[in-house]
Design brief:
The chain has 198 residues and is of the alpha+beta class. It is built from 3 helices and 12 strands. Bound molecules: adenosine-5'-diphosphate and magnesium ion.
Length: 198
């Protein structure tokens, strides 16, 4: 049985969601939350590096599936340098699997886990992150959940892209999004100014 090595986590193939290996190789876990397991791997067809975001089996409630569909719908309509690209929204064993661009980045949350960035490291990434936000607003989108887990940077290339569009909405939307509730705060409190209203 193949084994997968991740930062401190050793995974056997039967720890992965069933079917995840189909069509992908060199799959390693890079992030795990209550909602999603996120893997880095290679799509066998075309040898393309990808990120696979898999909704956990116990989270496949309609509301959670809706955040995946919302995110995929928004990302697949968008083609700007400062936002991650979505290639596909697949279903494997009743769980949504989102196939995303891999540009060799890590979230700011992961990049700063061991030590804070120096100012020299921080400023160019911050400028790029602002450019990504400008791309989002120029496309009439409101992200609503900007936080260090949703800003992905590759320090070697200097590229920065925004991810995490599960509760994002379109500004011209005339009916309220089913993912937001009037009078209730959604998203991340620290980003509550321009990127969180709507
Ligand atoms: N394209 C990507 N490149 C690198 N890391 C990613 C990418 N997409 C997700 N991640 C990692 O997975 C984590 C969770 O992704 P996210 O889209 O926020 O999932 P969820 O919708 O479950 O919150 C991110 O904080 C980041 O560490
Ligand atoms: Mg997230």
């Amino acid at each position: 049985m193949p084994e997968f090595h991740t930062e401190g986590v050793r995974m056997k193939s039967n720890d992965l969601p069933p079917g995840i290996l189909k069509g992908f190789q060199d799959v390693t876990l890079i992030h795990e939350s209550e909602r999603s397991s996120v893997f880095r791997g290679i799509r066998t067809e075309g040898s393309q590096p990808v990120i696979l975001k898999v909704l956990k089996g116990d989270q496949s409630a309609l509301a959670e599936v809706a955040t995946y569909k919302n995110e995929y719908g928004i990302l697949s309509d968008l083609d700007v340098p400062g936002v991650i690209k979505a290639y596909d929204l697949d279903t494997q064993d009743d769980s949504p699997v989102m196939v995303l661009e891999d540009f060799g980045g890590e979230s700011l949350q992961q990049l700063t886990a061991e030590r804070p960035l120096t100012l020299e490291e921080f400023f160019p990434l911050a400028v790029k992150a602002c450019e990504g936000l400008a791309d989002i607003h120029a496309a009439d989108l409101i992200h609503k959940d900007i936080n260090p887990g949703h800003i992905v940077a590759n320090p070697d290339t200097g590229h920065v892209k925004i991810i995490g569009f599960g509760i994002a909405s379109r500004q011209q939307q005339t009916t309220p999004s089913p993912l937001t509730h009037p009078g209730q705060l959604t998203g991340t409190l620290v980003s509550c100014q321009s990127s969180s209203v709507g």
